[in-house]
Fold:
Amino acid sequence: MVAMTHSYRYLRPSAVDTPGRRVGLATSGGTTSRGPLPHPRFFSGTLTRPEAAARGLLSVAAVARTRYFRPSLDALRDPVVTCDGQRLRFESFSACCGVHARLDVLPGGLDGEVLDRGTTNVDVNDPLREALARVRGEDPLRLSVGADQLTVTTADGAVVEKKVPLPERWLRGFAELQVISAPFDLRAELPAAEAVRLLRSLPAGTEVLWMVPAGRTLRRSARPVPGAVALAGARRLEVLAPLLRFARALRVYGPTVGAGSLPVASAWELELPGMRLVLTLSPEVTRGFSGEGAVLDALAADEVEADAELIGALVDFEPAVDTGELARLSGLPLPRVKAALGQLGTAGRVGYDVAEAAYFHRELPYDAAGAERLNPRLRGARALLADDVVRLAEGGDTATIAVPDHVHRVRLSPQGAALGCTCPWWSRYRGTRGKCKHALAAELRARRGRGGGND
Structure:
């Protein structure tokens, strides 16, 4: 897994005054509501439900170090934390990038001072895990979050964690996830007792189960039916087990499916006192979010970069980004606002919260090196256009792409959207993992001169 490089400079080392229970953090740059600052701080205070919060943080850390496809424990990776002025969001992807975990510590779970709003990523290593595992009952848990470090102070000491680079696959996963989860709807809500029974009854295999709402619970179905939710690899929900005794409810989200639907992603929200933990699962255990290709349509729009610059200037670490309000303020139509959010997502700058059905703003603490570098199919499509090998048929309903030893054909709708391609990628996935480079190239070509011949 490739990691983004980022350099840090500290004014002084971080320090912990254990007798006085005071934590001093050295920070190294970050983006805040006031713009870039060299040494910002975001939050200092306590978590009001310390044991539940500790278990939640451990669950996010557990996902970050787990590989569910070809199971193994990987090196600990760096969860992302965002402070939006009302809550703290801790996020991580699994090592295989097929599971996304997010712990939201809501206003009722925090007691302290918000010093600023912004985002950082943190290394949760073994000493911190050991400190969190010792939290019991009402043991005090003081938390101070800076732009480049996380410090947790427990009853028996303090542990300071330094930041490490964020894996590039995570960046791609963040981009894909906000596009994939935006169409999700609430499919079922289970009270705590039913949630415990359901999760303890699920098989530990990797197969795709279809879960159908049935009263106050979910039942398994052998095939997809309207209203069902896909659950690929139920063992990927095992990370919820340590939190079940704190649970108040379980909510399940997914896209619309019908008879004959292929596996789709799903989200599982465990409501906790003052918090919620959301796990989003990829459509199959073998698939990581970083390769789904859902963001490609948004990135391929010609005007998306300029739109993203405008929309990026309007979001301000709001707990929920109102797309209608962004459309009003920017003067852009709603589809272009959503495309711009897709572009911002490629830089890790927005996410989507299924629990609130709204986007939220985050700023990862480094600059992404461009959308196309992180999406090889889009780079390939632009290369095909640059090589002038894409031709539109008379009428614009078909495009041909000539490569050295053969020709691919792409079918296009009257609006210029790709309906299919003769390449092996499309034959294998049929658009369920994003479009192939030939389809993207055909769509780009159609936008430039649909029905008007070739350049």
Q: What stands out?
A: The chain has two domains: 1-373, 376-449. Confidence is low (pLDDT under 50) at residues 1-28, 450-455.
